[in-house]
Write a structure and sequence with these properties.
Number of strands: 17
CATH class of the domain at 14-151: Alpha Beta
Distance between the termini: 123 Å
Helix content: 40-55%
Shape: elongated
Radius of gyration: 46 Å
Structural class: alpha/beta
CATH topology of the domain at 14-151: Rossmann fold
Length: 667
Amino acid sequence: MEVFRSWILILIYYGLLPFNEAYENQMKIDFLKDYFKFEHNTRFILHVCFPIDLATKKELSLCNQFNNVKDPAYFINDNIDHRMIRVLDMDCPSANDILMEANSTLHFTFPNRWVLLFGKNTSDVNESLLLDIDSNVITAKIFSEELINLKQPYKYNRFETFLDAHVDSVGKVAYNVNKLLCSFVNATQRHKLTYSWGLQDSNGTWNKGSMIDRIRRREDEVNGMGMAIFPNRLPAVKYLAKTSDSRAGFIFRMPALSYVSNILRLSFQTKLWAGLGVLLLLMMVIMKYLFTFEVKRNRSRDKAYNVENCDLQKGWASLSVFLVGSLCQQGVEKEPVGISGRVGTFFVYLAMLFIYTSYSANIVALLQASASIGNVDEFMQSPIKAGFLDFELSRILFEKSSNPIRKKIYEEKAGPKSYYSYVKGVEKIRNGLFAFYGEPGIVFHYVSKTFEESEKCDLQEIPTPGEFSVLFHATPHKSPYIEIFKNGLLRIDETGLQEKWYLRYYKSQVKCGASVANFVQVGIRESYWAFIIWSFGVGAAILIVYLSTKKQLSLRNQYNDVKNSVYFINDNLDHRMIRVLDMDCSSANNILLQANSTLHFTLPNRWLLLFGKNTTDLSESLLLDIDSNVITAKIYNEKLIHLKQPYKYNRYETFLGNAYANTYNHR
């Protein structure tokens, strides 16, 4: 049975092998397409062992000239143009022989240029090759469509240079700390590239090939990059000591104060608003007394005194309008003529001038001010949206977090499509109302490159609850090197070497270099509450007009608007009541027929029938006798309304309006 199972596994492996090779070959072709576009107007010579179809050849030839040769002797021929780039597939059987021959004939020296393609399982360049400082060799190790490791052997180690210090700052600090650690324990570093720190599924299994999985199975003795401490990782690995400091948080531009508060109310304190109200009431009482006193005095002196000369004595409403006009620097139509009234009016205007000036100055200052957001609670109440670095740790900390605050930030401020690169995240920070979660040192690097000086002044950084601030080294449980590694890391930390590498690679927060405040344009957001106040005022005015009109109608006559036709022709109604019927109603004809059958068109019943422009006249079958009191109103427009009383008299058979009748007959 075991032998049979082994044969099945062998068949499955060799059955899938062509598929794996085809996928890897396609990734190599895709890389060549991108590289040909990058090295434009350059000639290539290829030695590859994967097939290239005609369409791919045409696409490659559009970018550069190339030849695909099979003879290794021609591939390293001295007659080849020195501007030619040699592309060698390391999965070819003759690849190592070609490298050895090129090495012996010094074809790795200037001006020769090489690109070596490595598959996922192909070993790196042989260390015996003579790749000197002037060599121009690029190795491309292709893991997947999105992960390709490019490097230039013997050029420089990107972990030991300060060029592009913002790129992989965590890895560079950890590399140099590991280098010191290996020197302390007299060991040699050998690095393995992994694609993940480690994720644990529901069964408690760590994803294969991850950093934690390799350490747990003792494939590696220590991690090459610092790891954060999470409870589920403690049973898998043994944490030793600090690798380096680290921090992450939300970085954003402070929004304008008008986005989070009503600046019209913030201009004065609450006590000042209350004091202003008391002052207005006191002014109203004093001015009422002064105006009333002036009117009485003028009446006593001159019996013919016109009271209209001082409209303000009429009531409190006029005084309110006077004070509001004074507050808004508008004035009133008529002013008092007496000395006492004029003195009072002058000091009212003076007090209102000081209030108006102070309020306006505060409004201008608040328009330039930024909101104060210093913690997560204030951040959650603000209109700022959030985004995260497109990174495995960001998903662990927010999307898969059990912390309620982090979960709330993800659900309310972000979402599944809120993962960005550093470049895109910093761009959205600059646009405003956006907070980006990432490593501040890298964010500040891009900020210093792209932001204007005035835009750097309102940057803010806030941490989230449970934020880790330290990364650690880890080793397998029961490893014989635990104490050695721990003592070495503690010694590196105590001597300040960890801090040295941290400060070299991590950029501090950018400083504001603007000497003057940036000009702020006033938009709809800043004027929002002004529009709200205006809307309430217009709404209140319309409501008052409606109520006043309704009150005037009720003062003239009592009326009821009824929907029930039975109640409309009820005999119990007051005989002084006038029935008003809209003939455009669907039940109008039924009401007329019912009133006709019950003799409700006779005295003392009174009717007013409203006809629209296209409504037909009354039916002649109605019993409208000489004592009926029915008025019909046919409305054509605002200026033309035809009124008549049916069955009263014919104006063409009477002498009333004779001149009009003669004119009509003549026409």
